[in-house]
């Protein structure tokens, strides 16, 4: 049985002060709801927040005395471990403050910062060889969708993105999660219908099965992301191949993020 994952991506929002304020609001909402807290702490559902680098340490500190388990991750990493790479953040630096996960290949990195599948692949290899869990984002643009090439694009993103990645523990421990995020649905208010999202997530599982076999395809967690709100949470999560959600805009307000968590149970 795959666990549910509700992951928020704050993007370039919230420095350390607002990060601390966010947790002051969110944590009591969860703590005061024993049913939700038990499901989170019991491992039935994983709550994750991917915060800006400058706020990672504050996020970890905000959670250090909390009775709620929330996984904190970075939004991007360097493929290099250290050295003369001004402005970059390495997995070694993250591990000094016990950060154990990162998003890699988010569509904003791909399209605004022109990250290629090969660059994303190097980052995934660096992350996984340092035991950093990865949310690997893939998805097609509107143009690609309209030209009927969605599956080709996704297949290429998976093939190149995961080339030479050491698949050693069957993806069971959430060490590599795939997030299907159609670019046209990110931050636009347009959500893929649950049926459309399911169709592509099923296809992704089939592609993983063809490459790595059925057991790995069964174990891997696949998230949907793109204008998720609390009112479409239940419907998306009821789909057989959608194991969780990656949420941008709607993760920025603690009460809205909490209502998504409530609706996911
Ligand atoms: C995202 O940033 O990964 C995302 C899905 O954003 P939004 O929910 O705002 O579309």
The portion of residues assigned to helices is 40-55%
Quick one: overall form? globular
Flag low-confidence runs.
none
**Residue fraction in strands:** 5-15%
Q: Could you explain the architecture of this structure?
A:
This protein is of the alpha/beta class and 265 residues long. It is 44% helix and 15% strand. The chain contains twelve helices and eight strands. It has helices at 16-31, 34-41, 56-64, 91-96, 107-111, 117-129, 142-146, 150-161, 194-212, 214-219, 230-237, 254-263; strands at 4-9, 45-50, 71-73, 101-104, 133-138, 176-180, 221-225, 244-247. It has an eight-stranded parallel beta sheet with strand order 3-2-1-8-7-6-5-4. Strand 2, helix 3 (56-64) and strand 3 form a beta-alpha-beta unit. The longest helix has 19 residues, at 194-212. It starts with a strand and ends with a helix. It binds phosphoenolpyruvate. Phosphoenolpyruvate is lined by residues 9, 11, 181, 186-187, 225-228, 246-250.
Descriptive key words:
265 residues; alpha/beta; 8-stranded parallel beta sheet; globular; binds phosphoenolpyruvate
Quick summary of this structure?
With 265 residues, the chain is an alpha/beta fold. It has 12 helices and 8 strands.
Topology:
Blueprint: E1 4-9, H1 16-31, H2 34-41, E2 45-50, H3 56-64, E3 71-73, H4 91-96, E4 101-104, H5 107-111, H6 117-129, E5 133-138, H7 142-146, H8 150-161, E6 176-180, H9 194-212, H10 214-219, E7 221-225, H11 230-237, E8 244-247, H12 254-263
Parallel strand pairs: 1-2, 1-8, 2-3, 4-5, 5-6, 6-7, 7-8
Bound molecules: phosphoenolpyruvate.
């Amino acid at each position: 049985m795959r666990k549910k994952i509700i992951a928020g991506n704050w993007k370039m929002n919230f420095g350390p002060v607002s990060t601390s304020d966010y947790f002051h609001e969110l944590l009591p909402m969860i703590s005061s709801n024993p049913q939700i807290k038990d499901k989170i702490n019991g491992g039935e559902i994983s709550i994750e927040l991917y915060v800006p680098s400058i706020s990672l340490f504050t996020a970890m500190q905000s959670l250090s005395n909390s009775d709620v388990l929330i996984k904190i991750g970075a939004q991007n990493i360097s493929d290099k471990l250290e050295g003369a790479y001004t402005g970059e953040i390495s997995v070694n630096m993250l591990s000094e403050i016990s950060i154990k996960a990162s998003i890699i290949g988010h569509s904003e990195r791909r399209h605004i910062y022109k990250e290629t599948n090969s660059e994303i692949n190097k980052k995934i290899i660096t992350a996984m060889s340092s035991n950093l869990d990865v949310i690997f984002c893939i998805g097609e643009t509107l143009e690609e969708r309209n030209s009927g090439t969605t599956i080709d694009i996704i297949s290429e993103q998976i093939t190149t993105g995961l080339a030479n990645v050491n698949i050693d523990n069957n993806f069971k421990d959430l060490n590599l999660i795939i997030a299907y995020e159609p670019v046209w649905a990110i931050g636009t208010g347009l959500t893929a219908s649950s049926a459309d999202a399911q169709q592509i997530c099923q296809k992704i599982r089939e592609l993983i099965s063809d490459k790595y076999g059925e057991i790995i395809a069964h174990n891997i967690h696949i998230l949907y992301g793109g204008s998720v709100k609390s009112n479409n949470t239940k419907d998306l999560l009821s789909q057989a191949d959608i194991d969780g959600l990656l949420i941008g805009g709607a993760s920025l307000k603690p009460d809205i993020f909490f209502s998504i968590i409530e609706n996911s149970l």
